[in-house]
Structure formats: C-alpha cells, structure tokens
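Usage example:
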Amino acid sequence: MMRIRSSLTGLALVAALLPLPAQALEIFACEPEWAALAQALAPEARISSATHAYQDPHYIEARPSLIARLRRADLAICSGASLEAGWLPALQQRAANPKVQPGRAGMLFAAEHVETIDQLDHVPFGAGDVHPEGNPHLHLDPERIRQVAAVLSERLGRADPEQAAQYRAAYLRWSLSWQQRMDKWRERAEPLRGRTLVVQHSTFDYFWRWLGLEVVADLEPKPGVPPTPGHLASLVEDVKAKQPLAIVHSWYQDPQSAQWLAQKTGLPVLALPSTTAPEQGIEQLDQLFDHLLAQLLEQVDAG
Amino acid sequence: MKSTLLRTLSLAVFVAGTAQAELSAPDISLTIDAYHKSTDTALGGRTEGWGLSHTELALKQQFGNLMSGKLTAVMEANEEETDFSIEEAYLQTLSLPAGMTLRGGRFLSDIGYLNGQHPHADSFVERPLLYRAFLGGHYYDDGLGLSLVMPTDLYWRISAEAFDGDQLSETDSGRTVGTWALSTSLGGDLSDSQSWQAGFSYLRNRTLEAGEHDEHDHHDHHDHEEEGHGHSHGAEYTGKHMYLADLVWKWAPQGNNRNQQLTLSAEYARVTDPNEYASSQEYHEGWYGSAVYRFAPQWSAGLRHGRIDVQMGHDDHFHEGALEETAVMLAWNPSHTQTLRLQYTHQNVLQDWDDTFDAAADDVLTLQYIISFGAHDAHSF
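Running the assembly step on the lines above writes:
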C-alpha cells in the first residue's frame, strides 16, 4: 500500500514537471476583474487570476506558482498605474517569458489605455502610497471597462491571429449588452446621486464618481497607510455631522477600524467586494456591479 | 577582475548607444541602512558602534525589449573604516526563447535561498552564520549565468553559472573559471494560504587549487585574526565542493499577506575538501532555521537559530570549531520604504581553537533603520 502511494506521488510529481501540451491561449490576469473580462471575450482561453477578492492587490508576493503561470502565458492583463509595482516586475523578470515583458503586445496595462483620475505631477515625500500615474482601481468604472475591453479584444487577436475574427465578434456582442447594462445601472442608481460615504482607501473612487456619490472621509490617514487610532478619533465629530450613507471597506481589509467608527457614530458598515469573486457567486463583471448597486441601495432603503 | 567589470560597463554603454531610440530614463534607487550595534560578534557583518551597512545606489536600465542592465554601488562605513564596492554590474536578456535568461557581468549567484535576495529585504540584521562563514555574507562574482524556467505547472528553475572566483577567494586565482555553480529550485502553492519553495545548489570552488604551492599556507586560521574588523567579502571557510539545500514555507490567511504572514525557512550547507589534507570526514557544515511572523500590517517579529561546525586548518591537520547563534528581532515598517528593527543576538562557542571565535558575544543589541528612495526592486518570495 505504502509503495503504491509513494509511486503514485512520484507519478503526480513527474506529471507536474512535464511540459504542458500546447493548447488554448493562456491568459494571466493580475486581478480577478481582468480574468472575468478575458473570460467574456475569449471563452475558450485558459485564464487564471493571480489574486482574488480577499487579497490586497498592492501586497502580493512573487510566489513560485505565479512565476510558473506567467512563464506559460501568451497574454497578461493587469491594471497598471503601479498597482502591481511591488510584485509584477519580479514575476516578469523571473518568468523569462518574452511575450509578457514590458512594452510587448502580450503585456496589457489597462491604465495605459484609459485616463486615470488623481494623477500627480510629482509625489511629495511622505504622501503615502500614491503614484504619479493616478488611481489604478479603474475597473470600477463601467465606462472605462468598456474602453479596456476594446484594447483587450485587439490584443487577443494579435496573440492568436487565427481567431481574431471570433474575438472581434465576441467583443461587439459583449459591448452591446454592456451598454444596455450601463443604462440600466444608471437608472437604478438615481437614488444614490448626491449621497455621501466614508471609505477606507481610494479603491471605489471610480465607482463613486460614476454614480455621483461623494466621499466625506477616509479611514486611512494617507493612501496605503493603515488607519491609526488618532486619525479615526479625529473623524468622529465630522462624520456624525455629515451623516453619510455608510462606512465602506473592501472584503480584503480588516473590518476593525470601520467597526470602531461605526460604534462611535451609529453608522452602518458595508463590506463590499472590490472585484469579481467566483467562489462567492460573483463570476461576471455585470454581477459585480449588480451586487455593489444592490448593497448600496439597501442602505438607502434602510435609511 | 577589474578588466571584466570594465568590459561589462563598456558593453552596457555600447548597447545603450545602439538602442537609444527605445531608451527610457533609468530607474535610480538609494537605500540607506544605518545601525548601532552594542558589541562585535564572531563572523559578524557589522561592527560595534554606529555605522552604515550595505547602503546602496542602484541604477537600472531597460534596453528596449532586449535586455536590462543593473549597476549597484555599495558603501559600508563604521567607526574604523569606509568601504566602497560594486556589487552588481550586469546585463540580462529579456527576449530569449524557452524560458532562458542569460546574465553577464557581476551579479549575485542563484545558489541558496537568501543569496540572490537583496540584504535590505532580509528579516534579520545579519545573514545567517553559514552565509557569513562560507559565502562572505552573499556571493557575487564576475561571470556568466544561464537560467531556465521550465513550462511546467509547478515552478521549476535550473541555473548554471561560471565565475572567475576572485570574490570568493579574495585573490586573483588567475583562472578563467574559478568557480562554477549549478542550482535548481521548485515551488508552488499547497492551498490558498500556503506556498512553498525548495532548492538545491552545488558550488565548485577551483580557486583553492590555483597556485597551491605558494598560497596554501595563507589559507589557514591566521587569516581570521582580523575578522570583525577589516571588511571582508570573501568566504572565511572554503572547500572544493559546496552543497546547499533550502526550504521555505509561507502562510497567510486566504493568501492575503497584507495583515498577517508566517514565513518559515531553513538552509543547510556542507563544504567538503577544505584542503588537500582533508579526509572525507573533515568538512565544514552549517544550518539555520528561521520563523518570522508579521502580526499586523506594519509589525513583524522573528526568531532564528543557526550553527556552524568548521575545520580549522593547521599545517597538515585540522582543529574543530563550532559556533551557535540565536537572534530575536522586532521590526516596524511605518511605510513600505522604511524599516526600524531591534535585534537581540546571542552567540555560543561550543568548540574553539586558537581563539578564532574570540569575538563571540553573549548579548548583542542591534538597532537598524533602513530607508529607500526612488524606484526600489520588487521583493521576491
């Protein structure tokens, strides 16, 4: 029995080390939202996301498994604007895959193809974790998603020219239904216009702008710097006076700070996914926006 | 040694000239590592008192899609001396097929787990004993290296490197290939929250055979008298063959290492044939095990224990030496560019000869502050 088990383990190890047979297009997405978008535009491709909704995408380690995945990729899609600056360059260097080196057609940074918000001419020392390229969380704007989809569709065609026509057709179909969805979301979001929120980090800024919501306070004293007791205490009076809709934090963030402020102010805490989460039933990008809207509208109804 | 470096630099300039159309501005970074150490330690990289250790200015330039180059100048200063060195000056390909990367110039060898990592990313103020004893802290040299990442599900890297060996022996061995190394590492995820990496390396040191007749006598213990004072890049204890095995395991809840992460790592080294009188029973040996726990986004604590067993050559025979070191540290990262670390180190001499481990200290406190400016390297696993 022992011998069978050990030889099986041996076989599994050999299988894991054998080069994989050439198959469908391999797509490496830095974040789940880009994996979901690639899934919509190239359903036949083998797609994997380097991160999930419970991970802070700023702090990912260049793990061996990620190097192995990038090594096999035909196309990589990431947010850019330095969001992945702490780990993607290490992956690119170690994966030794010419297709996804910076500047190649196989390396797509979304932020290079849409206008980002909050760009800076220069970053003053001590400004926190901010980058001159602006806010990288652009996938939470449905309009910008559409712009990125157009570029991704073109890159898919370049990586896999034989299927270029299919990718183009898939994009046109997707784009049409996305436009209809955007119109519906705008309509549904009407009660949210002009409302205010307390947030933790600038993760949802694009979404708030698109909906016409305003941020009145950030639990982070500086972008990327975890909330401090002193900073939180300084927010209490102001937040009480402004009576925002809720205190919002991402799934991957520690809820402690939001809960503390909620206790002091009587406001509700809203934990939202900042990206798609297939294991939690949010597989597609439209499901993500449906979910976010429903959660916010629930707060309006409750208030 | 110098000629290789010059050749590398002139090559870099040449490539820079031909590829100017695609050149972007180079990434420049400065890392300052300031410390205060209460007492000298045996084989200690840092000396007593105030000092700067491994303060580096690095220039990184990508030449189109073809290659990238890096130049790292390092300054170390303590109350007795100031030392400048070039630790990295290499060009590396970006466009070779089949997962290959070719490096040429002066660079850190791929052997072991810690060797290829930059010291300011370390969790403790000094490298483990085995690195300080057998590799001069970290091993870099002038040469060529080819590495290969296999297209497998599991991460699998194989590297072959050839160096002139001058940095390890601290002499000009006169050989074209003074050292060569083969290394491999494997790694993957065990679950959403656990990942691992294991490696095995072999380093062949041919510099010991060069000019054996007139240089042999200088390889004995008398070289060690200056240890703890003069700044040394070379290895204290060498041998013809070095074998290194490393294992790393990391855990973070749901793979989110922002708030919490546990890192366990261990390495083992054996260096055989210290000289021609050594029998197969006479070899150097060392190991360490380390546990580092980040318990809050800005705070981490760690414990490391290690030991070396060495053969100290004395004419045609050996005297055994054994040294243990335990370190406990607490680190605070107020931002991702700064680290403030307090470390307590305890050394224990188990066996000594001719006061080689005279500098060993019972209680050592080190306070370290690291700050970096500009584009800094992404940290590896």
